[in-house]
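User: Continuing from earlier, I have the next pair ready.

Assistant: Great, send them over.

User: Here they are, in order.

Assistant: Folding the first of the pair now:
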Amino acid sequence: MPGRTIESMTTLGIVLLVLGALVAVAEAHYPVHGIAATSGVTVMGVGAVLAISGLGAGLLVGLLVGLLLAASGASGLVLVARSGSAARRRRVRTGAEGIIGHLGVVRSWAQATGSVAVDGALWSARRAASADEDDAGRPLHAGDTVVVERLNGLTLSVRPAEEWELL
């Protein structure tokens, strides 16, 4: 009977190792903010302790291997979490938010609207509501450099570029 208990501990340990790995990998496909990965690493650590102890290596060796496995998994989680948070802090480069702040060149302008070339694309544009009184009175002409303030649908809101923005 004691052989059967050791055999079942080893089997349970291996099952927990596989299950923990699957749960940790599932985090990559269904992100739940590290909860699944943390649970998976913990289950893998317990599985390692049971599997190694069941193989006859002793509880101390099993605990050391389990702690080593859990520590390496936790350090991997910390590395992934840091990379993810660094990516969230970066400035948006694409899409509607990515064009804000870019410089463009007026191609044609009449009254309050015109067309502006920004990053190689021609956009419909209108004058941005500016708090700066100096810009409000200055008309835009073909060839003027402008700064994108906002994007509304496919129409840019632009303002004349200041000297420091042209450098």
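And the other member of the pair:
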Amino acid sequence: MSKPPIELDMPDANVLFYEAFFSEEESQSYFKVLQEKIAWKQQELTMFGKQIMIPRLIAWYGDDGKNYSYSGIEHESLAWTDELLKIKVRVEAVAKIRFNSVLLNLYRDENDSVGWHSDDESELGQDPVIASISFGEVRQFQFKHRENDTLRQSIDLTSGSLLMMKGSTQHNWKHRIPKTKTAKGARMNLTFRVIQNN
């Protein structure tokens, strides 16, 4: 088991970081298997009347019927793989809740990113617990407060780490993975969630 978590210094939030939740060997193994077995897709998004390609690959897995919509994109859940279930059990032991779905993102290089957003869709409920596992390249994860733009926080998400966002975090903070000017290899992110309304 990893060392005790670090609680990030963020008002109006509850964010815990487990730096080495999975060992280096486990992380490399899961990265390789998931990169090959997951049904990755690059999807289109409509912004200002134009179709743009989302700058990362995405997949959605979960219990039957646990679909998810964000940014106008509907995700129908694919059946859990054995590897995803093993990872889920490990995460649930710490989170103390049962997750029924996971969003996977594959950032292929330094040009892949996700913009400022909160995981606050109605399907996730009032105070969602989001458990985020990272495998592969280290990328910086940035936060900014919704009401006070000077309140910011960032953390390097290392391979095998777990970032847990709980309580009012999604109501009060946005987060992103920015592009970088430094060359980066591939990084995979698994965000476990609880879909409540279907």
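Worth noting for the second one:
The mean pLDDT is 92. Helices lie at 24-37, 82-95, 169-172.
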